[in-house]
């Protein structure tokens, strides 16, 4: 009788008993559910990749050289001095580009509200503030003359008519350059 009692006690407290084996099976089921949730989060992040950075506005990057600008847009239709930067602003059919010729750096890319839409990172967005909010989320900063969206060092400013939601223009610029 004593042997039977010891064997029974040993099987209840033993790590080799049947009951503890059921715990890892339940744990494995929870782990599987967690893996599925993690893959959904990854898909959501991959979907928003387009606007994690501001690379181009209407095909022009702040990193483009004068040669690349000419290749992409051809010859400008007009050139004028930017009164704020003291550098020339080159006007193309769908975009204006402020370039300091001495350094060759593009300071900003501007599009007017006369365009039906903007092309940000190759993706077309309608030229209205609701569509821009839908694509980019809430602005980082709301100014008297518009809304500013930041991605890393690059900023996109949507200029709006004072007291309204009517867009007047959009600039892409490096917010660290003053």
Relevant terms:
two-stranded antiparallel ribbon; alpha+beta; 178 residues; disordered N terminus
Summarize model confidence as the mean pLDDT: 78
Euclidean distance between termini CA atoms: 91 Å
Residue stretches low in confidence (pLDDT < 50, at least 5 long) are 1-48
In percent terms, what proportion of residues is strand?
Answer: 25-35%
Structural class, by secondary structure, is: alpha+beta
* Main sheet: strand order: 3-4-5-6-12-11-10-9
In total, how many beta strands? 12
Shape: globular
Characterize the biggest β-sheet.
8 strands, antiparallel
Q: Count the DSSP helices.
A: 4
Helix content percent band: 25-40%
Topology as a string of helices (H) and strands (E): HHEEHEEEEEEHEEEE
C-alpha-based Rg, rounded: 29 Å
Could you provide a short overview of the structure?
Helices cover 33% and strands 32% of the residues.
Describe this structure in words.
- The chain is of the alpha+beta class.
- Helix content is 33%, strand content 32%.
- The protein contains four helices and twelve strands.
- The strands form three sheets. The chain has an eight-stranded antiparallel sheet with strand order 3-4-5-6-12-11-10-9, with no helix packed on it. The protein has a two-stranded antiparallel ribbon with strand order 1-2.
- Strand 9 (141-143) and strand 10 (146-151) form a beta hairpin.
- It is globular, with a radius of gyration of 29 Å.
């Amino acid at each position: 009788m004593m042997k039977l009692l010891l064997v029974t006690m040993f099987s209840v407290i033993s790590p080799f008993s049947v009951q503890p084996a059921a715990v890892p099976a339940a744990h494995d089921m929870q782990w599987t559910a967690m893996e599925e949730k993690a893959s959904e989060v990854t898909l959501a992040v991959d979907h928003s990749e387009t606007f994690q950075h501001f690379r181009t506005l209407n095909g022009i990057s702040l990193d483009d050289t004068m040669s690349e600008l000419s290749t992409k847009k051809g010859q400008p239709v007009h050139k004028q001095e930017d009164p704020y930067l003291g550098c020339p602003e080159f006007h193309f059919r769908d975009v204006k580009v402020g370039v300091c010729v001495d350094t060759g750096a593009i300071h900003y890319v501007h599009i007017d509200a006369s365009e039906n839409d903007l092309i940000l990172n190759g993706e077309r967005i309608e030229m209205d503030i609701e569509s821009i909010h839908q694509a980019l989320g809430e602005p980082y900063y709301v100014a008297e003359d518009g809304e500013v969206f930041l991605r890393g060092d690059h900023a996109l400013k949507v200029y709006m008519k004072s007291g309204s939601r009517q867009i007047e223009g959009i600039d892409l610029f490096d917010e660290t350059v003053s």
